[in-house]
Design brief:
The structure holds two protein chains of two kinds. By secondary structure, chain A is an all-alpha fold. Helices cover 81% and strands 0% of the residues of chain A. Chain A starts with 8 loop residues before the first helix and ends with a helix. The chains are: A mainly alpha, B alpha/beta. Chains A and B meet through α7 and α8 of A and α2, β6, α3 and α5 of B.
């Protein structure tokens, strides 16, 4: 077996050609990036309004001054996001399970889950925040929450539970019928088949779209600002109004990005490894 | 003849306009293995699914140990726990390991403790030549290995009868032997079986009786040597000569 140790000339040639191709590809990528990105930057920086925009949107002194305040408001966004996300994960699953349930006794809950999804997925989230945030306190019923953060969270929860329920349901429906048959054939009940066979496969399949919805939810938390709570966007708006400078909004935008970009990378990574055949 | 385990009486089933089963009668005695042969689409799979109550029959009765299991008042879950079904496409649970596939039914349907179920599951996998593959997921197993896991899974609940639906037809030819060996092994133990198959050699070797399903009915039944070598009915003769031409015997 001496041949295996010797690398043939043909193979060396192929390796050399591959290396040349790779080097050439890298060079092209660098040049095209410089041209495209540099061109875009030049285009913006030489625009007639740029000096003014730089002062009103990218003022370093205003940024330094406003950032701590915006950041303190951002904790409210993060807290709201985490709590609403957990509620949405559970509520969405429950609604999806109700919707795929069988049996005549469950007809009303099936109907309710369909109505729930149609209603709350069909209304713009911003409108829901208004309706819940101003409508529920107007009822003046004791026992109902009046805290605008809670009301805003409820509105977001309703909207996103409807979306997430449909994501779960699509996952459940994507599991092959043969899996349900096999689960019944080994003696499981319908509920056991769902719990031990269908759901584990469905959840794995929809992990990526679910995370995608959470990136979206994280941003939409800013909508509760219309009810008054001092979260990042609201604080940034207030500072902006005080000194006619938009830089605090940029500070808020950077804070949202600090959460959504890492989340997006997690979503990307799941696309590669989380698949189950 | 031993007492019948399965009795299929005048069972009919139609899907819309298409009548698949048109009055099937078939009795399978204890320890008996019956090979169910017939052309593709002749209703072999449908018949097995009807017996396991995965498909509802239109008319007739299916009896398991003398009890009418197709009565709407009977709990289908309890019936399925007394039967085992092996699918043509294996239908293993892809998110579970080989061992977990085997023990899921035992633990959840038969209420056996994890420790006991796993001990039995390991023994069962080893018996079918799968020692060392317990923790592999189905997509890391060959078709033959997957089907043997599926057989172990169906057998793990100690069924009164095992229903095998074309268990070798999705396999590459060189993998058929290992699955047949597993079935032969169960036959040697006295397992009552209904084996829907295209493999006439398999029918000849494992089955006590061969039943030919044609036009929604069992048109001929008898020992393999008689039915396969000297069929009485013209439909059986035509079917077998077509298989012969295709080189499938």
């Amino acid at each position: 077996m001496t041949e295996t140790a010797v690398i043939s000339d043909r193979r060396l040639e192929r390796q050399a050609a591959k290396r040349r191709q790779a080097r050439r590809g890298q060079a092209i990528a660098v040049v095209s990036s410089v041209v495209v990105l540099g061109g875009l930057a030049a285009w913006v920086l030489t625009s007639p309004g740029w000096p003014e925009v730089r002062e009103t949107f990218f003022s370093w002194s205003v940024f330094k001054e406003s950032f701590p305040e915006v950041l303190s408001g951002f904790w409210l966004d993060v807290k709201t996001f985490v709590i609403v996300e957990i509620v949405v994960l559970v509520a969405g699953l429950v609604i999806a399970l109700l919707r795929v349930s069988r049996g005549p006794a469950l007809f009303p809950v099936r109907l309710l889950s369909v109505v729930f999804v149609d209603l709350f997925r069909g209304i713009p989230t911003i409108l829901l925040v208004y309706l819940v945030g101003f409508g529920i306190p107007a009822l003046q019923l004791t026992g109902l929450p009046t805290d605008p953060v809670v009301l805003g969270g409820i509105a977001l929860g309703l909207s996103y539970s409807a979306y997430v329920a449909e994501v779960y349901r699509s996952g459940i429906r994507s599991v092959h019928r043969g899996q349900h048959d096999a689960a019944l054939a080994v003696g499981l009940t319908d509920a056991q088949a769902m719990r031990h066979v269908i759901l584990p496969q469905a959840v794995r399949r929809v992990a990526q779209p679910l995370l995608n919805d959470f990136v979206s939810l994280q941003k939409d938390v800013a909508l509760i600002s219309i009810l008054g709570p001092q979260e990042a966007f609201r604080i940034a708006q207030i500072i902006q109004g005080e000194n006619f400078n938009y830089t605090p909004l940029i500070a808020a935008a950077l804070l949202y990005l600090a959460i959504t970009v890492p989340l997006a990378r997690v979503v990307d990574r799941m696309g590669g490894g989380g698949e189950v055949r | 003849m031993n007492a019948p385990v399965l009795e299929i009486r005048a069972v009919t089933k139609a899907f819309g306009e298409r009548r698949v089963l048109a009055g099937v009668d078939l009795t399978v005695a204890e320890h008996e293995a019956v090979a169910l042969i017939g052309a593709s689409g002749s209703g072999k799979s449908t018949l097995l699914r009807c017996v396991d109550l995965l498909t509802e029959i239109d008319d007739g009765d299916v009896l398991l140990d003398g009890e009418v299991i197709t009565d709407p008042a009977v709990d289908p879950v309890a019936v399925r726990r007394r039967l085992g079904l092996v699918f043509q496409a294996y239908n293993l649970f892809p998110h579970l390991t080989a061992l977990q596939n085997v023990v899921l039914g035992e633990m959840r349907a038969h209420g056996i403790s994890r420790a006991e179920a796993e001990e039995r599951g390991r023994a069962l996998l080893a018996r079918f030549g799968l020692e060392g593959r317990e923790d592999d997921r189905p997509d890391h197993l060959s078709g033959g290995q997957q089907q043997r896991v599926a057989i172990a899974r169906a057998f793990s609940g100690r069924p009164r009868a095992l229903l095998l639906d074309e268990v070798t037809s999705a396999l590459d030819p060189e993998l058929v032997g290992e699955v047949l060996a597993a079935v032969r092994d169960l036959k040697a133990e006295g397992m009552t079986m209904v084996i829907a198959t295209h493999e006439m050699s398999f029918a000849r070797e494992v089955a006590d009786e061969v039943a030919f399903l044609h036009g929604g009915r069992i048109v001929e039944r008898g020992p393999p040597a008689r039915v396969l070598d000297a069929p009485e009915r013209p439909e059986t003769q035509r079917f077998l000569s077509r298989l012969l031409e295709a080189g499938r015997i």
